[in-house]
Specification:
By secondary structure, the chain is α/β, with parallel strands linked by helices. The protein has a single domain, classed as Ribonuclease Z/Hydroxyacylglutathione hydrolase-like (Metallo-beta-lactamase, Chain A). The protein contains six helices and 14 strands. The mean pLDDT is about 95. The chain binds fe (iii) ion. The site of fe (iii) ion has 6 residues, from loops.
């Protein structure tokens, strides 16, 4: 298995490239439009063929490169079935598997940050989008976000995975690159709650600013950045 984590400075987004070392097929999770050239360069350096691109959800803070990568490489675009993006070719359901040569990636419906948020699990690598972050959780105050759904997705799905599962989120603002489910259970301040109501209370009182370009980003991302 080939695995690369790529960071976008402007939006603090992590993009992930996964590939099979045998068949050389590659998949990219949460690509950022401005970084297309660097992905194409990386694919060619590693002698990989991009076959699939996934967005974990409709992002508010950057524009996806999904449509552009499809134009260049003819890869398929994938999102969860709850996505409002009509041009997505493959809409996966909760618990459905995505194949990449001999690799299998399980789609997990984890709404809450947005109503269309999915996480993706490959072996013990969890790509959690903005559902679960390192020492944090995705905000729930726009794009049909819902703190109760987020609590359920986190506590009843993601935290049920084995403690040594590696957590690779879609963002980090403090330079953290990876965590584990076990570490987050113990140390993530948002997860030290004793009830769903306590979690809802925390999430309702974050008083975060609206992301600067949310409206243009969302309307572009509904077209996969085309
Ligand atoms: Fe997000």
């Amino acid at each position: 298995m080939i695995f690369k984590q790529v960071f976008d400075q402007k939006s603090s987004t992590y993009t992930y490239l996964i590939a099979s070392s045998e068949g050389r097929e590659a998949l990219i999770i949460d690509p950022v439009l401005e970084n297309v050239d660097s992905y194409i360069k990386l694919l060619s350096e590693l002698n990989l063929k991009l076959v699939k691109v996934i967005d974990t959800h409709i992002h508010a803070d950057h524009v996806t490169a999904a449509a552009k990568l499809k134009d260049i490489t003819q890869c398929s675009t994938i999102m969860g079935e709850h996505t409002p993006a009509e041009t997505v070719e493959i809409k996966v359901k909760d618990d459905e598997y995505i194949n990449l040569d001999n690799l299998k990636i399980r789609a997990m419906y984890t709404p809450g940050h947005t109503s269309d948020s999915y996480s993706f699990l490959m072996d013990n690598y969890l790509f959690s989008g903005d559902t679960l972050l390192i020492n944090g959780t995705g905000r729930t105050d726009f794009q049909n976000g819902n703190a109760k759904d987020a609590y359920n997705s986190i506590f009843n799905k993601l935290l049920k995975l084995p403690e040594d599962t590696l957590l690779y989120p879609a963002h980090d603002y403090k330079g953290e690159k990876v965590s584990t489910i076990g570490k987050e259970k113990k140390f993530n301040p948002r997860l030290q709650v004793s009830s769903v109501d306590e979690y809802i209370d925390i999430m309702s009182n974050l008083n975060l600013k609206k992301p600067v370009e949310i409206d243009t980003n969302v309307s572009k991302n509904i077209k996969l950045g085309a």
